[in-house]
Design a protein that fits this description.
Layout: E1 7-8, E2 14-15, H1 35-47, E3 52-62, E4 69-75, E5 82-88, H2 89-93, E6 104-114, E7 119-129, H3 132-148, E8 166-172, H4 176-188, E9 193-199, H5 206-218, E10 223-230, H6 235-238, H7 244-251, E11 257-261, H8 269-273, E12 276-277, H9 281-288, H10 292-325, H11 328-331, H12 334-376, H13 378-383, E13 388-390, E14 408-413, E15 416-421, H14 439-444, E16 463-464, H15 474-478
Parallel strand pairs: 5-7, 8-9, 8-10, 10-11, 11-12
Antiparallel strand pairs: 1-2, 3-4, 3-6, 4-5, 6-7, 13-14, 14-15, 15-16
Helix pairs in contact: 4-9, 5-7
């Protein structure tokens, strides 16, 4: 590395200094560029640039007719960035209209860099105003882009509250638009409250200040609706309200937005993005608050209708009640009771008849069943004069050979039981004189079909009281 001229050190000895790095990339902490070197390098780079066309908005114009050179401040149309533009007087005189602050222009200029001050400026040699047709074409193109994104869709619109607690108002400082909104709103609803933010509504600061005020009001919970208001003006005056960033901010606000910019024929882009577009500031005031006079009239009308409806209902109910009272059944309520009593008595009589009929049928059925049972019982046979003869073991004597002379036997008749003793082995011979109480047995004993035939008949001549054998009819009687 080459050495430059030596510099004295603290002891007075010369210390060689390294050569400057030829490029910015070769600088180091030990070998940095001095500030003048950077300024020279930037100036050299800018000097190599060709003249170019740039677009901007005139923020300030300082004319010096005697000096032949004027100075203009040109600001970017979208962001807060500006350059100083020196311009010759003959260039300004060549313009078709006098340039003013806020005008949008296209400038042909050569970039220059002042190394001592480290500032960049543009030396203009031609200035052309941006035409109205070109501005409209740009706005139309931006409008199509935003519409394609859905920023103007009706589905995004929010409904305005019926009676907002606080109304946010963004307007110019001490402007007629502010007075129109406040006066007309309080005339319609005296208790309405406002949060007012006064901002620049045209020029270079308009977009920035309106956007800041909108963000602030949108964050206040008590603000229920926001009005952005400005009076009429030229297309250039209203351009800030067609700014893309401001339009997107309006479309994305949480609070409902009412746009009241210019007159009916003016339609900046925020009119399309806002929830409600008002033709004038006065129209905006009418849209955000109800008219107290009209509301009182509606309340009075509602009360009148309610009274009429209640009165008509009472009259209808009274008429219905009178009609019910005039019925014969209500004039003499005992007729209802008498009719019901007759009906009950008739039903009781019918029930008794039905019950009696069923009881009679049941009694007949019981008698019939009783007769059937009695006809099947052995007692029925005994009642016809037959008897059952049994030996001491209870065996029924059916043949004469089943008993012997002198054997005690038991005789069962319908009326009871008694004992006898067989006295002879010969067939039964009726006695000369009928014996007393047991005659029915002897008389019936001759019937060969009875349970005790001739061989099993008891001898009435001798009766004994043997031990009572088992009764063969017991099971039949019990069954």
């Amino acid at each position: 590395m080459t050495q430059t001229s030596p510099e004295p050190d603290a002891g007075g000895a010369a210390v060689p200094r390294p050569a400057l790095a030829p490029t910015a990339a070769q600088t180091t902490a030990e070998n940095p560029w001095p500030l003048r070197q950077l300024s020279v390098k930037v100036g050299e780079y800018v000097a190599r640039m060709s003249p170019l066309w740039v677009e901007g908005e005139i923020v300030q114009l300082n004319r010096r007719p005697g000096a032949g050179l004027s100075f203009m401040t040109l600001r970017d149309v979208d962001v807060d960035m500006s350059f100083s533009v020196p311009v010759r007087e003959h260039v300004l005189r060549a313009l078709p209209v006098e340039p003013v602050a806020g005008a949008r222009v296209v400038v042909h200029a050569k970039p220059t860099f002042w190394t001592k001050r480290g500032s960049l400026q543009l030396e203009a040699d031609d200035i052309r105003p941006v035409g109205l047709g070109e501005l409209l074409a740009r706005l139309e193109q931006l409008k199509r882009v935003l519409a394609a994104e859905g920023l103007f869709a009706s589905s995004r619109k929010q409904a305005l509250p019926f009676l907002p607690r606080v109304v946010g108002l963004i307007c110019g400082r001490e402007s007629a638009a502010e007075r129109d909104v406040v006066v007309n709103a309080r005339r319609r609803w005296p208790a309405v409250q406002f949060e007012i933010r006064e901002v620049a509504v045209q020029g270079a600061r308009a977009v920035r200040e309106v956007s800041a005020a909108l963000r602030e009001l949108d964050e206040l919970a008590q603000v229920d609706v926001i009005i952005i208001s400005r009076g009429g003006g030229s297309l250039e005056d209203l351009l800030p309200f067609s700014d893309e960033q401001l339009t997107r901010l309006v479309a994305g606000a949480r609070t409902p937005i009412v746009s009241a910019i210019g007159h009916e024929v003016d339609t900046p882009l925020i009119d399309l993005a806002a929830d409600v577009r008002a033709s004038t500031p006065t129209d905006a005031a009418k849209r955000v608050v109800p008219d107290i006079v009209a509301e009182v009239e509606q309340l009075d009308l509602g009360r009148t209708r309610l009274r009429a409806a209640i009165r008509a209902r009472i009259e209808r109910e009274q008429s219905a009640l009178d009609a019910m009272r005039s019925r014969p059944v209500l004039e003499n309520p005992s007729t209802i009771l008498a009719g019901r009593a007759d009906e009950i008595r008739s039903r009781i009589s019918l029930a008794r008849t039905l019950i009696g009929s069923r009881l009679d049928r049941a009694a007949d059925e019981v008698d019939h069943l009783g007769r059937q049972v009695r006809s099947l019982s052995p007692l029925a046979t005994l009642e016809r004069g037959y008897a059952v003869v049994q030996d001491a073991e209870g065996t029924i004597v059916r043949e004469p050979e089943q008993s012997t002379v002198g054997q005690p036997l038991s005789v069962r008749v319908a009326g009871g039981r008694f004992g006898v003793e067989r006295t002879t082995a010969d067939p039964y011979q009726p006695p000369a004189h009928p014996a007393a109480p047991s005659a029915p047995v002897a008389a019936d004993a001759a019937d060969a079909d009875g349970p005790a035939g001739p061989s099993g008949a008891a001898d009435p001549a001798r009766t004994t009281d043997p031990t009572t054998p088992s009764d063969p009819t017991t099971s039949s009687e019990e069954s």
